[in-house]
Amino acid sequence: MASSAATPTHAGAASHSSEQSGLWSWLTTVDHKKIGILYLYTALFYLLVGGLEAVLIRTQLAKPNLSLVSADFYNQLFTMHGTTMVFLVVMPLSAAFFNYLIPLQIGARDVAFPRLNAFSYWVYALGGLFITLPIFWGLAPDGGWFAYAPLSGPTYGGGYNMDFWVIGLQVLGISSLAAAFNFITTIINMRAPGMTLMRMPMFTWMSFVVQFLVILAFPVITAALFFLQFDRFFGTQFYEVAAGGDPLLWQHLFWVFGHPEVYILILPAFGLVSEVLPTHSRKPLFGYNAMAYSGIMIGFLGFGVWAHHMFAVGMGPVADSIFAVATMLIGLPTGVKIFNWIATMYGGSLRFPVAMKFAIGLIAMFTIGGISGVMHSSPPSDLQQTDTYFIVAHFHYVLYGGAMMGIFAGIYHYFPKMTGRFMSESLGNWQFWLNFIGLNLTFFPMHFSGMLGMPRRIYTYDAGQGWDLFNMMSTVGTYMLLVAGLLFAYNFFRSKKHGAPAGSDPWGAPTLEWSIPSPPPDYNFAQIPEVTSRYPMWDLKAPDRTAGIEHSHPDAAVIAEAHAVPMHEETERRTAKELGIPMPFNTIKPFLVALGIIILFSGLIVLHIGNFPLAMATMLGGGAFMVGSLYAWLTSPLE
Amino acid sequence: MSNDRAHADHVHEHPTWKQYKWVALWLFVITVVEVWAYYIPAFVASKAFVPALLLMSAVKFTIVVMFYMHLKYDHSLFRKLFTGPLLIAGATLVAFLFLFKR
Amino acid sequence: MTTATAAAGAHEAHEHTHYTTTGLDNRKIAIWAFIGSECMLFGSLISTYLVYKGRSVVGPFPHEAWTSPTGQVFKPILDIPVTSASTFVLLMSSLFMVLALAAVENKGKPGYEGTLGSSKLWLLATALAGAVFLGFQAYEFTSFVHEGLTIKTNLFGSSFFTLTGFHGTHVAVGVLWLMTLLFIDMKRGLGPKDTILVDICALYWHFVDVVWIVIFTLVYLIQ
Ligand code: HEM
Ligand SMILES: [Cu+2]
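Above: inputs. Below: predicted complex with copper (II) ion.
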């Protein structure tokens, strides 16, 4: 294929997309690749939204005593910036890759539950609008991305603002949970013959861990959010201090969710980088087992460190010590990953396309963020840093320098697979360097302004405290990041049409997704391959690289039973019908169920407005619509 | 594709009707003992009350999960999918009781 | 809400069997993952109830009498005899559920000709027992409200009604699910090839039952 790919596979793609393009086909699709693309576009749109919010924030803080925005609106800006970036950008960008890559990497034709997959996306898309639109009326949530109760409760946050947050987040949780059950089942049960767990590509491994974090962490915030909703809408007392409610209840519940959540954000990026580095080092991933196990360790320990976000509330020496030690421990498996990536590159024959630059950027930037993280794992040290810009510096090094850089690496790496074309390397280089310099210019000075005592979440500050220069640097850096982002957008859309054609395996990569045409046909694999090692494509094309790793022989029994064939490259592009592969029907029902859920929850806002009959009508109507659509969905055949 | 693979989870030995009856009987008896214990003030006041009730409840929990949810006879994967989260949930609950102790 | 999604996932995969890595049915893996997730949901609800135990500033209280500042006397609010009865009904529903599953799985086999093989009977019995449990809960809730405890009254009221209400909602979803199976059984008859459909519903049902086992001890019996 690699050679015949000089003829852009795009020709084929064009003909097949003509039969199923248009709005309706996107609303009804159940193809994991199209859903992945939908996630990608939607999340990139929200990246623009969250990015513009950040630009406004930084412009307001460029100099002392500016009044570009009001204090009130500033609260909405930082709340929505954080919420957007976490729940509407990084998680869905990861979900875009889960969707697109997991079935391809494990040799499957789709996910376990294709319609549930569409449902997850639509809940995300509609829930995202629900939480984003109110900012245009100045009604956006304003209680921080962690919404500490009782500040977010009815007594201190009685407006409509936080209504949108407590409902929107609940809805987004449904999306993540549904997707997680789907991917857990897919990874356990849809692997091609011979694709044992310890042969799975590292991205699939990290995604697997993430899905477990989702199913264990999200129910906790679901419960916490229900309490807050009941307080706000039904008059319960969960977070009411006057009634004896404990202000720490929300904090504990939130961070039991919140710390695993940060690993939900970073592990997929780690996975992407673990695909990019071996490919461009032309050398197997160093310490594959250690990589997989450290991912599991991070996930597991991630449930025992949450209270390091709460050292300042006075939990007492015993609790502080336990959580401090646990937090320091979790640095170890993280360090293992860093060293393994470096060792992967060591002695390889390196290539430096943009994807590789971003991957190496992640290693460097995440290390800085990891080190400042270990600094505030010590309570005495954290007491100086908590709620200052030092913390902001820390988590932007891990989130922007880590998660976002990893995702950019993933986009540059997989764009040719998704579209059949390369992104421009020269524009990409500009983006990378602007990004790299802008990121450090923005966030490194925050370590200093933080250490000098500048608190988080203030809308302006007085001159003469030694913060002015650092703030100006941060703002200039932010504008560099904005330019970098626009360059990326230009590159992305231009390359889709005019990029140089890429073959099925443009990078000479080792894993299954590169054995099929780019973009892949809707059935993915005409014949499911039997996998005999971790790097099937290198076995075919560069066997010297994989001589040292474990192989099995093709198993005739497995092949016969599972209708699999020995590992091969697929070059032909035919329709599923010609090949006799049953494909799931497109359906609108998952979208309708998602819509029903949104209507159901919107009733709560009407309730707050005070129109009881209309509220009941909305909730009952939405609920009935949801249940009806659900029954229609469940009783119609999949394929 | 092949049907026997798809039904592989059923070739395991299954709990029988007799076991079902026994489990139901045990559930009933333990519940009676639990409620009975609740009405003995001296026992309620003693140190043994809470551990005894927790133990009885744990036994009920375990036999339902093992026999009625046939986890004892099923693929070990299901055991992992259940006990892992259960342990994390339990540990979190204990941590909460400790953190909120006054 | 998440229940509905999981039920959706659980029903999703289609009749004819594709190759799967483990040989297990997708739906069964999904429902166990869902149950694992539910452990954390109920874990959070129960933790909150226990953390707030004894912290309400006004009554009524679960296990102690309370005299309000105005001199009104409230007795301990939990009604152990009634709840013991409803607990018994829910426990027995689990027995009916395993019998329903066995009846579907062994339809037509020797020993399953009579009552034992009547999946319709056992599905109906399970759903009815669930409905009776819900009836008890409705009775309990209304009598609490009459005695002066609502979800707004105090921390106990908020956390108690929320915890047991969530459990009750799960029971209600289960009853709906069972009724749906019963409906399918009456329309086209459930047989051995439908085992998975009943199995995932049964797993959900038993899980809701074990959650109640925990709630009954922690909330009602331990003072
Ligand atoms: C080496 C691993 C890490 C360590 C040791 C660590 C440690 C910490 C600690 C102790 C805090 C609390 C600071 C405070 O008192 O406010 C914190 C805050 C934070 N961390 Fe990390 N962290 C690590 C990795 C990550 C990752 C991977 C992410 C996200 C991708 C992340 C995101 C955050 C965020 C968003 C906050 C701010 C919480 C707030 O709003 O107060 N961290 N980190
Ligand atoms: Cu944390």
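The pocket of copper (II) ion (ligand 2) is lined by residues A 259, 262, 305, 308-309 (CB under 6 Å).
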